[in-house]
Amino acid sequence: MKAIVGVKRVIDYAVKIRVRPDKLGVVTDGVKHSMNPFDEIAIEEAVRLKEKKIVKEIIAVSCGPKQAQETIRTALAMGADRGIHVEMTAADMDKLQPLHVSKILANLVAKEKADIVILGKQAIDDDTNATAQMTSALLDWPQATFASKVEKEGDTLKVLREVDGGMETIIVKLPAVVSADLRLNEPRYATLPNIMKAKKKKIAKMKPGDCGVELKTHFDVVDVSDPPVREAGIKVDDVDTLIAKLKEAGKI
């Protein structure tokens, strides 16, 4: 099988997010970026499938500015075979939405004749959790979202997935779209030799138009603001005082 894996460049999870002065986004200039953690899990799963001789080739795809190539190189160092960079300007990135990414991925699936798409269940910057589902719809492929375990059985995938009520096991027919949940695996660290090898692997460059995608916004950001500051708690001496305080606050 041939696998396409999406890898998104996001603000590093350890960075404190700051809202822009115009309140239409967050500050990204001069801020450390890294691969979306859920996408690291997706790449790791693809590499494990390759090690089991289930997947023959892994293509890492990223949409973004020039710096997105660093994210692709990380994926290549982890074990991906080649990359595709869909280049975008800063202005394009402000317009980029999950539906655009899904259309790009669907187009690349057709061009590359891929058999499986593996994505992180969500990106930690916008938390939309929509790209995998929309890609599945555009391709008319079955989807296995929030995957915690993936096993190939013949021409199907047996997927253990996390749902609100617990765990669910589903079987989907290939080709399919899979989105990786947190407990699917633990991504490996890229070793120095693999980082050096990754520099020689090919990264093809494309534009959204090459994938038949026009970046039209489907919604507008009205306001971005910091979450409200949490009020300090208080200590009480006994249960009766606690109940009285809760009644005063209108909680009970």
Automatic annotation (TrEMBL):
GO annotation, cellular component aspect: mitochondrial matrix
SUPFAM superfamilies: Adenine nucleotide alpha hydrolases-like
Record GO terms (molecular function): electron transfer activity
Function statement: Heterodimeric electron transfer flavoprotein that accepts electrons from several mitochondrial dehydrogenases, including acyl-CoA dehydrogenases, glutaryl-CoA and sarcosine dehydrogenase. It transfers the electrons to the main mitochondrial respiratory chain via ETF-ubiquinone oxidoreductase. Required for normal mitochondrial fatty acid oxidation and normal amino acid metabolism. ETFB binds an AMP molecule that probably has a purely structural role.
Keyword Cell inner membrane carried by entry: no
InterPro entries: ET-Flavoprotein_bsu_CS (IPR000049), ETF_a/b_N (IPR014730), ETF_b (IPR012255), ETF_beta_N (IPR033948), Rossmann-like_a/b/a_fold (IPR014729)
Protein name listed in UniProt: Electron transfer flavoprotein subunit beta
Subcellular location: Mitochondrion matrix
Domain Electron transfer flavoprotein alpha/beta-subunit N-terminal intervals: 23-215
Keyword Cell division: no
GO BP of this protein: amino acid catabolic process; fatty acid beta-oxidation using acyl-CoA dehydrogenase
Pfam families (UniProt xref): ETF (PF01012)
Binding partners and assembly: Heterodimer composed of ETFA and ETFB. Identified in a complex that contains ETFA, ETFB and ETFRF1. Interacts with ACADM.
Family (UniProt): Belongs to the ETF beta-subunit/FixA family.
Entry-linked PANTHER family: ELECTRON TRANSFER FLAVOPROTEIN BETA-SUBUNIT (PTHR21294), ELECTRON TRANSFER FLAVOPROTEIN SUBUNIT BETA (PTHR21294:SF8)
PROSITE patterns, per the entry: ETF_BETA (PS01065)
UniProt keyword terms in alphabetical order: Electron transport, Transport
